[in-house]
Amino acid sequence: MANSTTIQQITDSPVYIHSADAVSPQVSFDQMLDAPLNYSGDQLRCVEPDYTKYVDAKLIRRMSRIIKMGVAAASEALSHANLQSPDAIVTGTAYGCLADTDQFLTRLVEFKETLLSPTAFIQSTHNTVAAQIALMLKCHNYNNTYVHRGSSFEAALTDAISLLEEGDAQKVLVGAADEITEKSHAILKRFGLYKTNGDSLQLVQNESKGTMAGDGAAFFVVSKESQNALAQLTGFTNHYKSEEPSVTIIDTFLKEKGIALTDIDLVITGNNGDLTEGKHYKQLEQLFDKDRLTTFKQYCGEYPTASAFALWMATHMVKKGSFNNKPVKQLLVYNNYLLSYPTLYLLKAC
User: Fold this and answer.
1) Fewest CB within a 10 Å sphere: which of 54, 161, 172, 269?
2) The domain defined by 233-348 carries CATH number 3.40.50.1700
3) What's the pLDDT tens digit per position in 148-181?
């Protein structure tokens, strides 16, 4: 990706979200708001479901954690949308199947590049999650995976919406997944990215250097049909290393959509508790009252495709229609991973 500003803006007409499901460090959306799970240390880990509900028990032992998380979230999304098989499967991931990559490289060294089983290598490729979903569904339709660091999910969503707008698909399964492994976390920790003794529920209030790591998978069924939809995605824009301030990006985006600042009932930001990033997100108080601002990374932690979790959270908030006893009919999500990938989602009640 070039070291310059890249902007994608789509959804001239609404795209409808028919289901939104996630495997995350929280048990469910309702429990997350009523009694969120608290984590200490430097990372949040996913609450994993009973995978035998989604995958044959004989296959589970061959699957790495990220594949199982992706398959479970995708299966739930399809089930809640009453969809047997989608017209396309599009996924995004920044790190891919780290556990299988680690396993393959470890065995490469241990066996001195001889007598290697190809299984770990085959399952280490980034498109394994999307491929496994297609194999389980026996779906031979369009299948693609995007690997673009902090904009991996946004690239997948761009493709999904393009398929809908061009008439190449009626209903698309789109999602993202990333995982933490012991070794990958140790490597990232060396860069000083994480707090040494974090508290997830106090993550945003504790403005000090670093954040807490996270992982998870979130999947959605999207279409141009409004019937039985949870919410409508009326706007979406993604930048890369923009030179414009966040307030300018947001103000311009809303003006292009003909939306006044006062029309936004709630803004969900990607503040992750890091001191520098906290100052960045605090600029939004120039546009919105504090009581209209909330955050999401205290629930899922920080990782490149955390914006998919944010969209999952936002979808259910719009469907519910309220937050903190205040109505939510129109909602804005603003996330800026590593202050290099500013992304906006505009959602509206159906």
Assistant:
1) 54
2) no
3) 999 999 999 999 999 999 999 999 999 999 999 9
